[in-house]
Automatic annotation (TrEMBL), chains A, B:
One of its GO terms (molecular function) is alcohol dehydrogenase (NADP+) activity. InterPro entries: ADH-like_C (IPR013149), ADH-like_N (IPR013154), ADH_Zn_CS (IPR002328), CAD-like (IPR047109), ER (IPR020843), GroES-like_sf (IPR011032), NAD(P)-bd_dom_sf (IPR036291). Belongs to the zinc-containing alcohol dehydrogenase family. The lineage of its organism: Bacteria, Pseudomonadati, Pseudomonadota, Gammaproteobacteria, Chromatiales. This is Hydroxyacid dehydrogenase. Pfam families: ADH_N, ADH_zinc_N. It comes from Sediminicurvatus halobius. The keyword Metal-binding applies.
Length: 352, 352
């Protein structure tokens, strides 16, 4: 079996440390990838800490993977050695159900196989993610990275990017629409760029007056300080869509009241009970909608990379030496990164 | 001013009693209606008891009104004396905003004027509803009752009917769709009939095994006893739409899990905080939607009456002598009516 080097956590308290493990043999439909960059997603931290009670240790996190093809299986038709490619949150799915056949593998009826901490559909093994030097992935779950994209800055597009791009496309955001973006972290700052590139009038909601300038720098046409009751009141009933990227519990009701009739509040960051509770009256009056959206399917994941190349959109990143990963997690938890850490996997060899 | 006889509540505890009051003079765009029938909606009880803290006493409830035109103002073009007509939950709106211009007066940006306990846009007076012998209504808010409909059974179409019909139409329910109907009261039993008439495969959810036969009699293709975990599990991921008519707090999560990906749970009965809270994961996984819907606009209110005439749909009603209204309210609160009380307004003269 091919050997791989990476970083893994072995218990909720252990933090991440160097880890040597086996990758599967190259399958006929596999692409072998030497990983150059891997983004750090808040989900990685949840899995490392076992916040959701489902982690199987050791866990090698990482689902924003950029690398170069080093070999391809005999049946692979779409990639060749040397290609710059990406792998996101999924590495397999049933490929036969209705969502899969529509390119919505994230909603696979049998459940997609997650890039890490997932269970391989063929050998039953637990998948290891992108905090490592190499990975084998079925070619259907590999995307092509356009040459004009900075490969490091492209890594977060595979989760933070597609997670915000997919619902904006699904709901048909276009010129004339007013879109609010709630939260300005890894997801939120991408949401601003996408909504603007799609032609919408973009308003960022922030709790802090101090972030107004930064929101404008990211492309927001307007900024509303959500703790300012007068600003919130003045915006009542004016938004077509809210893209809510906040990953912790928060009150949706003040934002629902800012939606027009038939407006839609889209949750992409929260995986908790919605508390405080939504008032049903805020949905009935105005026929408003509360929706969720999860990453994106493979065709749309390719599309977001191409869209970024066309519209010259990049994620704002801070490059990270993998030896500083545990410290970086603390900074992510404190919201002290603009806006996404990307691990420079070349630093991994210094740990061997 | 024309005199009217009706029933009113004068305080949260008083119950309803005979009440003599003045109606406005006929305006040029008004239709004067002699009321024959008025449905009893749970909302009437909420207003009488001041459950929502907004009742202005005395309150004359009733927003499912059927009657005959007795006179028309000089500018009225759509109605003539003798016509059988209906009036629902609204009697006015701004008529100029975007929702109004699209025939969605229920979402009027200035707020529609409610049939009772609303404020008249011209004279500022409080509106009195249909528990009375006559009413003056702007012709835009009057609908025509097709001759083939039983006028008494048509009364509840103006609230219970349109409330369930409108979202099924808005979301495009059609053959091939699987629709779940939660709750089998005044709204729910109409939801069954409409979803079936639109060609959907209809499943009723009930907590009680004893209601299975009745649900089938109403037209349900299937019945699921919601307290039976095995039945619920077997239905996971299978519904396109849930029409949730339950007017009290209940856990939506077990129902969200029964929706397909891209499925929609539509609240039409609840006007409370959604508790226990919806788990955001149930929206993200499957890109599901939680929506609300409020009655319907005037074109659609006419449409539902015409639809019922075409498809031979009627509300199941129990005729009520208005002198028994307080007792009837107790039965409504206990869920002991199949499925809607309709006041025979001829009984009002016996109270004078």
């Amino acid at each position: 079996m091919p050997q791989a080097n990476g970083y893994a956590a072995h218990s909720p308290q252990s933090g991440l440390a160097p880890f040597r493990f086996e990758r599967r043999e190259l399958r006929p439909d596999d692409v072998a990838i030497a990983i150059d960059y891997c983004g750090v997603c808040h989900t990685d931290i949840h899995f490392v800490q076992d916040d959701w009670g489902m982690t199987q240790y050791p866990v090698v996190p990482g689902h924003e993977i950029i690398g170069r093809v080093t070999a391809v299986g005999s049946e692979v038709t779409g990639f060749r050695p040397g290609d710059t490619v990406g792998v996101g949150c999924m590495v397999d799915s049933c490929r036969e159900c209705e969502p899969c056949s529509r390119g919505l593998e994230q909603y696979c009826l049998e459940g997609p196989v997650l890039t890490y901490n997932g269970q391989d559909r063929r050998d039953g093994g637990i998948t290891y993610g992108g905090y490592s030097d190499s990975i084998m992935v079925n070619e259907h779950f590999v995307v092509r990275v356009p040459e004009t994209l900075d490969p490091a800055a492209a890594a977060p597009l595979l989760c933070a990017g597609i997670t915000t791009y997919s619902p904006l496309r699904h709901y048909g955001v276009k010129p004339g629409h007013k879109v609010g973006v709630i939260g300005m972290g890894g997801l939120g700052h991408m949401g601003i760029k996408f909504a603007r590139a799609l032609g919408a009038e973009v308003t960022v909601f922030t709790r802090s007056e101090s972030k107004v300038g930064e929101a404008q720098r990211q492309g927001a046409h307007h900024v509303i300080v959500s703790t300012d009751a007068a600003q919130m009141r003045a915006a009542a009933g004016s938004f077509d869509y809210m893209l809510d990227t906040v990953p912790v519990q928060h009150d949706l009701n003040p934002y629902l009241e800012l939606l027009r009739y038939d407006g839609t509040h889209i949750l992409v960051g929260l995986v908790e009970p919605v508390e405080p509770p939504v008032h049903a009256g805020n949905l009935l009056f105005g026929r408003r909608v509360l929706a969720g959206s999860l990453i994106g399917g493979m065709p749309e994941t390719q599309e977001v990379l191409d869209f970024c190349a066309t519209h010259d959109i990049a994620c704002d990143i801070e490059m990270l030496d993998i030896r500083n990963i545990n410290e970086a997690y603390e900074r992510v938890k404190r919201g002290e990164v603009k806006y996404r850490f990307v691990i420079d996997m070349a630093t991994l060899k210094d740990t061997q």
